[in-house]
Amino acid sequence: MHKRLPLIIFLTLATTALIVPFISKIVPTNLISPFFQGPDQTDKISQKISTTEPLDISSAKTISSLQRIPRYIVYNNDTNRVYYAKGADIRMSPASFTKLLSTQVALDLVPMEYLITATKESIDKVPTVLGLKVGEKLSVSDLLRAAIATSANDAAQTLADGAAKSVGINKTEFIYYMNAKATMLGLNNSHFVNPDGLDDQNQYSTLLDLSKLINNVQKNYPEILEAAKSDNQDIQKTSTHGFYYLPNWNGLLGVYPGVTGLKIAYTGDAGYSTIVTANRDGHSMVAIVSGADSYLERDLAAADLLDAGFLAVGLEPISINKNSLNIHYKEWGDLARKIQAEIKAEKGNN
Known about the structure:
Strand content: 5-15%
CATH topology: Beta-lactamase
CATH class: Alpha Beta
Number of helices: 10
Number of strands: 7
């Protein structure tokens, strides 16, 4: 049976002036653009907003074994206490962590079963993509898994563009609502200019800001949490689209006990980065690593941070080693080779 296959790059990685007739009590007036064309979506994006007390970073220490990692943090998700941190307040490229915001806004606008059509503009993305085809129609649910678990940029852009179109707003307005929602959540040192996380000098965040974004996902978006722990829940072929593999590139998922998500990221500016959430014996931890030099360094650092956090609440460390991760990476490599072989076979049949 003929399949349309994803092109996954493995381990590499407005117009006319119409004033909007609203001033939200939540969104600062200096964010309101005079170039809106579509209807106001502020009510929709403000429905799911959970703020929390700032993380208590006052007693945080650094970890000598993570000297090579420029930015990291591990904190108790129940108490907001930060155990270890470095560079947590430094502006950096959020890379694909951005998708945790753009998918929230998309879900505010459209239901999971809504069908979105891929366009020439939405699929023209690099480097990690599914390989969506112009005119294919996919559900929000499928695009969400692809954007979060597989971190496919064409899926994230198609989801954002389709959600915007469904409510009559344009791409610029969607980005405005991303920043409006970020402001509502208290991300005061963040700014976003695209929905997928590709590097841009005007797109930045901090680890402390990202903790607020993570908190809102955990409290209000179970759909994103489900997507984050999905692995190989592939998109099956239908009459409206082809088949796509959906591996999860979170190196600790299924390796470190209790890991539930959440998001990997990579760009040239950001380096190898990850947000890992884990639960053990009733304790909830979040570890963020940003700027590692490799997948292995990233995942080992995240595992060390989780161990340090759980040790602080009296639990024994797991002590993940290179061998455990390399077995996982081999599975990724096998899948990548399988995909490449099927792509080659497909081209030979055309």
